[in-house]
Amino acid sequence: MAETTTAPLWPFHTEPEFIEVDGLRTAYRRDGAGEPVLFLHGAGQTRRWLPFHQALAERVELLAPEHPGFGDTPLTPEVDRIDDVVLHYDALVRAFGWERFHLVGHSLGGFLAAEFAVYYPERVKSLTLVTAPGLRVPGHPMADVFRMTPEEADGLLFNGHAAEYAEYLEEGDPGEALIHGYQEMTMLARLHFNPRYDVKLDHRLARVTAPALLVAAEDDRLIPGAHMERWAELLPNGRLEVLTGDRHPTGHLPHVTEPRKLATTIADFVAAQAGA
Amino acid sequence: MRDIEFFVLHDGEYPFVPHNDEIGQWSRTNFISLPTEFYDGPSARRMLDDFLDTFVLAEKLGFDGVLHSEQHNGPIGLSGSGLTLSAYIAAVTSNIKIAAVGPIMNAYQSPIRLAEEVALVDQLSNGRLVLGLPMGTGMQYHSYGNMNPAFARERWNEAHELLIAAMTRPGPFDFQGKHFHVPYVNLWPRPVQAPHPPIFIPAAGSRETLELTAKHRYTYQAVLNPRAALKRNCDLFRELCEQNGYEADPRQISVNLFVHVAETDEQARREVEPHIMWLMQNFFRSTFQDSFPPGHVSLRSLRGMVDGGYRSKPPAEMTWDDLVRERWIVVGSPETVAAGIEEIVDELGAGRVCLSANNGTEPLWMIHKSLTLFAEQVLPRFRPKGAAPTWAREPQPIPRTRAELAVRSQPRRQPQAEIEGVGIVETLTAHVPELRRAVRDRLDA
């Protein structure tokens, strides 16, 4: 990780590096050595290098960009659909000279990772999705992130344990945080408001023959566990693994509540597929 | 002499809902997710009845217009289709202006369908339609399936461009937008008002909306702002009109007020206070996330709100004194109400006032009393002496009798048909033996 020259704005905050991708100044953080892993983040918890990143970077070469409209990557009218984001990440990995790599995504990032893998299956050495939406699973509706108050969101994301993770929730000046959060939610809405899944994936995921790991939580109150089971059914080489919590049952944010355990799970899977 | 146009506003609320201290058991608010177990059919029909009768009453009393809103998926308003309701009002009234606010454009799959409905209602009403084009509250975006708040503004802007083009440009033409590609825009029938029905834009005060309203010379319909913000918005609006090269007409500023008139100030408050407080506590109650789903406001407007330009207090927390001070309500004897409205229209430079008829839950008999007192004792003070409603003073956009219409008719073609053994005849006369004759040869003969 590059040396941080300015004081952190909140816990885990670091200044990102930037790379120009198709004209968009894209923020990213990178550290570690070994198998190349592109990590796509979920909505929220941006502008941070978390203990999870650190733990994973101890085992792999980790590249963690911020999606257009998230973190320090600006919102741009050119990117307002899932396929725009897929093309953006194609351009980004080309810019880094990566040919084939391991793709990992949490939540929204998992959805985007799956879409990337559909378009570029030959580039993906392995695919790991952690508590990811993206599939239509009748009878198992997701919680509505677009209507939640921040308190409700914290309740569902941390299963009532938000107070134990207070440092993850600090984000500086409340007014600025509200505006920044609104911008990120606007980008999320572009991609995900309606519909909140891609029905095409039911058919298209057959294209993704790379080994795939589906990391489910014990008690995900945002995206029911049935969604992860469905990913495992649809991905030809998918394997479902439920990550258990040491302090309390895991929820939607295992990278926050079980950072080292999740990093180990991913790194072990990546290592096993290194020859792929 | 002031010359103010008065519209009677009714949203068609279904009021038989749990109060805000207990509603949380079933739904966050009354918007979009109150279970239909609270829907009682006969009660809803009674409410619709009062809603519809209010519009008929308003015409008889001599108001200039009626105004109703479009609400979706809940008890907030029982009209989910502003133009359907307007078609009904057109049939049960004769002269009064009918302001449909909305249609919510983004709820339409295509603005072509909207243009057709607007034109048809303008026809059915003999050019009495006033078209309101709200963005739709944020809540509505959760419950329609074809609306994404992240694209609300850009899609609204494009729909507006296409709607106006459909009503004003000769057809057919090809429209190529990001959201709409229509190879054949070709509107039949067309509105009777030229170039199109007057347009109201309801706005909480975002600069983008005021700019658009000024640019197109539409009417800015000011909704639910604190007194100081409202004044600022009206001044800004006039300034934006000047930047567009003209002086704003007072009719371009319309202010919404909760009004109730009774014999005395005390009696007026006694009558209306429960209704007003019910409305504020229950029907204006929403969360930030519901009101402003992502993208529904621009980041610039959001910054303005964060810096304090929106509301000092949520409506649900406003007291009677707050409401009086912020001048959301004007309640009292005819003298008091006239003085209150005078002060407001003078300060804002407004030429139109929309009066809430039912203030939430007032029954029809109480609406009748207050509106009658208003019409007889307040309204005349805001018109030139002895003047009739504006609809009786303004030129008719289209004649109403067949005699007049026939004189003005200049069709480019008469309907013709080819009859075997006769040739091409004119169908409107060919049933008469001596007129059943070929009027011309076939062009391709």
Automatic annotation (TrEMBL), chain A:
Gene Ontology terms, MF aspect: catalytic activity
InterPro entries: AB_hydrolase_1, AB_hydrolase_fold, AB_hydrolase_sf
Gene3D superfamilies linked: alpha/beta hydrolase
Protein name: Pimeloyl-ACP methyl ester carboxylesterase
Taxonomic classification: Bacteria, Bacillati, Actinomycetota, Thermoleophilia, Solirubrobacterales
Origin: domain of life: Bacteria
Ranges where the AB hydrolase-1 domain occurs: 37-263
Automatic annotation (TrEMBL), chain B:
Domain (Luciferase-like) ranges: 33-349
Any one GO MF annotation of this record: alkanesulfonate monooxygenase activity
Gene Ontology annotations of biological process type: alkanesulfonate catabolic process
Segments traversing the membrane: none
Record's keyword terms, sorted: Flavoprotein, FMN, Monooxygenase, Oxidoreductase
Keyword check for Nucleotide-binding: no
Keyword Acetylation recorded: no
Alphabetized InterPro entries for the sequence: Luciferase-like_dom (IPR011251), Luciferase-like_sf (IPR036661), SsuD_RutA_monooxygenase (IPR050172)
SUPFAM superfamilies: Bacterial luciferase-like (SSF51679)
Domain of life assignment: Bacteria
Protein's recorded name: Alkanesulfonate monooxygenase SsuD/methylene tetrahydromethanopterin reductase-like flavin-dependent oxidoreductase (Luciferase family)
Organism listed in the record: Conexibacter arvalis
